[in-house]
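In the previous lecture we treated proteins in isolation. Real proteins rarely work alone, and many bind small molecules. This record shows how such a complex is specified: first the sequence, then the SMILES for S-adenosylmethionine.
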Amino acid sequence: MDDFLRANRLNWDNRAELHATDTTGSYRIAAVLGGGSSLHALEAGEIGDIAGKDIVHLQCHIGLDTLSLRHLGAASVTGLDFSPAAIAAARGFAAKAGTEARFVEASVYDAAEALGQTYDMVFVTWGAINWLPDIFRWAKVVASLLRPGGRLYLLEGHPMMNQLEARDGHLDIEFGWRTPLADPLAFDDVQTYTGDERALSHTRCYEWIHPLSDIVNALLQAGLSLDFLNEHEVVVWKAFPFVVETGEDQFELPAGMPRIPMSFSLGATKRA
Ligand SMILES: C[S@@+](CC[C@H](N)C(=O)[O-])C[C@H]1O[C@@H](n2cnc3c(N)ncnc32)[C@H](O)[C@@H]1O
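The predicted 3D structure, ligand included, written as tokens:
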């Protein structure tokens, strides 16, 4: 693991501890422990039929969506994350909920060896691929985890939105559209994004913006076919200070501001 990913892991260990004891309601812990779901309306409406499917959730964080997929009818669920604190929390939540799930600690790039099996579905959502330097390598991992005919569901913040910073009530283009592999964007957030007031001790993290065309081309080259590509005007976190909440944990730009895509989703199927 290189220095960028090592720094990110420390940052995510730190965040996982705070999120596992979340008091802001952002993670819908009570709903999942009660046998329900933490999925937002957007992904719940798009994932399609998961009944009886074996699903792997990459970058599962503290495992709440992983457990939710099982509660929604998946035959088996596996969560993978490189943060030991996140995996420990996920296992704790599975035990508390009484939900069968496998949680594996590994980098996404080592997923095939760490998991040792294939799946009907790879599930990746909200703040995952921006932590990965090489999107083409990621797509090969996704392909290696899918059985022929198996599906990827990906839902992410839109790369165009990720280029912008809010300043004086408007949006400036702050970052380039394609972050070089060896020169990531560096951030030092003193708090996590849930509104939790506790301070992070490992503030440094590194991120990469991947163009939509790279994401799609990487999947096509890895042997998947595109089923759909959607762009949405909403996102599930307060991406900018002036966004307005238009649904449960659903935010968009205020009326009068030019619309931009705030998130995107795609479905892709592994070719036989
Ligand atoms: C914003 S969270 C993803 C949230 C997720 N959608 C959920 O279900 O809560 C990002 C996660 O990616 C994980 N992560 C970041 N880089 C990773 C890598 N290289 N390999 C595996 N996990 C990684 C972090 O530990 C963190 O748990």
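Summary for your notes: The chain has one domain: 3-270. Residues 5, 8, 12, 59-61, 65, 81-83, 86, 107-108, 125-128, 131-132 surround S-adenosylmethionine (CB under 6 Å).
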